[in-house]
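TICKET: design request
STATUS: open
ATTACHED STRUCTURE:
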């Protein structure tokens, strides 16, 4: 590489860092959205489905750049706690709580709705978990990569919110072997019951995971500990005794300034990538062991199927007294990379509620993490708006899509970010959809231009910026462009370009690159 090209490379990298590293996409600010869920289709990573309270589903067919909102209904009503998953055939599933007109009427069961085709319609919904007048809450689901069985775990309350000592909370499990059309009778998988207050001594936060051979794992919080159980026969039977994976000092129910309520409920994931860390089980959570003003993100792991667990490791890198909270974890099963998204206030004064969104990345089985801010601007949450109990993230084959809630013009809204793996220093096996032409010069005294190659047809957007990152013009706006080589000329007179430095970004559904241009 020539010296000029080397300098240009670092200039481009610096500009990408100083501009919006990861474009933030507003998915929706309608209906005070919160508690978002998102999933990347493993069959086609351009197809992504998300959901948010109370009854919104969002569909993207261009890897998350644009979204269509659908207002959902079901045979049993819709009452929040959305969870989106996809199976290996590309079918999507939308899980949520119920709101029926029956005897109980409210969260009396879990509801599953299926989308067979991205352009089709959702099924009317199948309910499971109905148990008299007991309340079914905080469900989460995963698909078994070996056989497409669906595994659900959730909390059953004898009576939600009850302070009666005789009322308990328990963790239940059920599965479907027929694409969500029917579900097994729920079984209890926890030993120690919790109360029904929806606090530290309530058994909550069960998120299932699947191991390389179809093992089913689940972890949850209760009485300042994180408990773990597993099944090696598809959830038919479970270990009689629960393992304590980690302590959770001060419990999972904690306060964060500006947020109506907050929690550190655990997230469980297992590596089935076939890589160096295949079979590892990870649990991620947050707690206030370091002080009520110093919430942190933590992880522990098991390398022996959940029999023993590592020491607790702090994920966020700051050494300040600051709040990091509401984390969620996923694994890209094509690489084994671990991604954890969370809220972070370490960039601001201790008494500030200004909040960023960060992404933690581990490429070595949670031994080390790198942390990067992915939100383009800070926001301040408002206690007048319900912020939700979780955020989410999904990744497959290098397509990494977090989703979070933030304030937007006084209301809650849900956002995603287009994560560029090159900025994270990740190598993905896929060949890039396009590349900049190395033969093109960057110094011009006539008509500025740059060249690029498309390896396949794509929707292309090209935007011209000044040196401060202010948008001058959109040269191409999501324009269908066949594969081939192209030269993009820029009219200096039309855009009144003076001598100096400018930048062009070129974006497809799979890639985002910034090109430096010097006008003389």
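STATUS: resolved
RESOLUTION: sequence designed for all positions
ATTACHED SEQUENCE:
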């Amino acid at each position: 590489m020539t010296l000029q090209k080397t300098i240009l490379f670092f200039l481009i990298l610096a500009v990408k860092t100083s501009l919006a590293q990861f474009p933030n996409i507003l998915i929706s600010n309608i209906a005070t959205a919160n508690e978002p869920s998102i999933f990347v289709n493993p069959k086609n990573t351009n197809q992504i489905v998300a959901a948010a309270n109370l009854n919104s589903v969002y569909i993207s067919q261009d890897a998350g750049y644009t979204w269509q909102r659908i207002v959902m209904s079901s045979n049993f009503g819709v009452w929040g706690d959305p969870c989106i998953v996809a199976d290996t055939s590309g079918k999507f599933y939308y899980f949520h709580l119920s709101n029926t007109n029956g005897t109980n009427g409210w969260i009396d069961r879990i509801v599953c709705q299926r989308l067979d085709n991205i352009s089709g319609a959702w099924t009317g919904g199948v309910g499971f978990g109905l148990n008299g007048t007991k309340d079914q809450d905080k469900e989460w689901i995963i698909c078994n990569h070996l056989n497409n069985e669906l595994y659900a775990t959730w909390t059953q309350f004898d009576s939600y919110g009850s302070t009666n000592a005789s009322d308990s909370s328990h963790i239940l499990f059920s599965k479907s072997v027929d694409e969500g059309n029917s579900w097994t009778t729920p079984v209890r998988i926890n030993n120690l019951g919790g109360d029904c207050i929806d606090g530290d001594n309530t058994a909550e936060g069960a998120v299932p995971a699947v191991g390389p051979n179809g093992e089913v794992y689940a972890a949850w919080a209760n009485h300042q500990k994180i408990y773990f159980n597993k099944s090696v026969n598809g959830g038919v039977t479970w270990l009689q005794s629960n393992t304590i994976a980690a302590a959770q000092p001060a419990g999972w129910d904690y306060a964060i300034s500006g947020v109506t309520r907050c929690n550190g409920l655990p997230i469980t994931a297992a590596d089935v990538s076939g890589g160096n860390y295949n079979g590892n089980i990870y649990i991620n959570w947050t707690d206030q062991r370091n002080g009520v003003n110093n919430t942190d993100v933590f992880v522990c792991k098991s390398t022996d199927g959940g029999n023993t667990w590592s020491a607790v490791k702090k994920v966020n890198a700051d050494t300040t007294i600051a709040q990091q909270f509401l984390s969620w974890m996923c694994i890209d099963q094509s690489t084994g990379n671990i991604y954890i998204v969370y809220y972070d206030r370490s960039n601001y004064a201790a008494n500030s509620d200004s909040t960023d969104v960060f992404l933690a990345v581990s490429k070595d089985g949670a031994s080390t993490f790198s942390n990067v801010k992915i939100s383009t601007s800070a926001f301040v949450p408002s206690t007048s708006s319900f912020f939700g109990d979780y955020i989410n993230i999904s990744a497959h084959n290098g397509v990494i899509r977090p989703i979070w809630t933030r304030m937007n013009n006084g209301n809650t809204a849900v956002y995603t970010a287009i994560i560029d793996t090159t900025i994270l220093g990740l190598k993905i096996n896929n060949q890039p959809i396009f590349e900049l032409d190395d033969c093109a010069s960057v110094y011009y005294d006539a008509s500025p231009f740059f060249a690029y190659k498309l390896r396949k047809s794509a929707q292309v957007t090209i935007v011209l910026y000044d040196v401060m990152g202010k948008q001058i013009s959109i040269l191409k706006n999501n324009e269908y462009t066949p594969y081939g080589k192209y030269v993009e000329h820029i009219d200096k007179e039309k855009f009144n370009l003076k001598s100096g430095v400018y930048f062009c970004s070129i974006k497809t559904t799979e890639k985002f690159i910034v090109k430096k241009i010097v006008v003389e």
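CLOSING REMARK: The longest strand covers residues 471-481. The two ends are 24 Å apart (CA to CA).
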